[in-house]
Amino acid sequence: MKTYMANAQTVERKWYVVDATNVPLGRLASKVASILRGKNKPSYTPNVDTGDFVIIINSDKVLLTGKKLENKFYRYHTGYIGGLKEVAYGKLIAERSDLAVYEAVRGMLPKNSLGRQMIKKLRIYKGAEHNHAAQKPEALKLF
Q1: pTM for the whole structure
Q2: Is 8 inside any structural domain?
Q3: Are the CB atoms for 28 and 56 separated by under 8 Å?
Q4: Which residue, among 136, 125, 121, has the nearest Cα to 19 in the 3D structure?
Q5: Domain count, the chain
Q6: CATH no. for residue 19?
Q7: Residue 70, SS3?
Q8: What are the C-alpha distances in Å from 140 to residues 17, 39, 53, 103, 129?
Q9: How far is residue 43 CA from its own chain's centroid?
């Protein structure tokens, strides 16, 4: 029996829309990362980007359980000496919820050139409107 190995020319990509309203951030990120990798397809190949495109809408309505809004921080470095900055997730969700969702999904993808290629297939919108109607995306129910 031969093992099927996908290559970049034979991959068929679909578009999915995910509504993030009242969905915990980590659960949303893990499901979306799995779709971006292509693990929901029978043609999944670990060394090939076989994933689909994902559009996340209503990212400002995503949930964080427990006391994560006050106790969890988004940290980044400016590149200057002493330039470590941190923002509480409560403020980050209120101001830049698309960044919070993006970073959660990016952290669940491979940390190599393949992961950087996969994250480019993710589109995140704060509201319920998106401009990808021409791609005819399918609504994806996570839970």
Answers
A1: 0.93
A2: no
A3: yes
A4: 125
A5: 1
A6: 3.90.1180.10
A7: helix
A8: 6, 15, 12, 21, 16
A9: 21
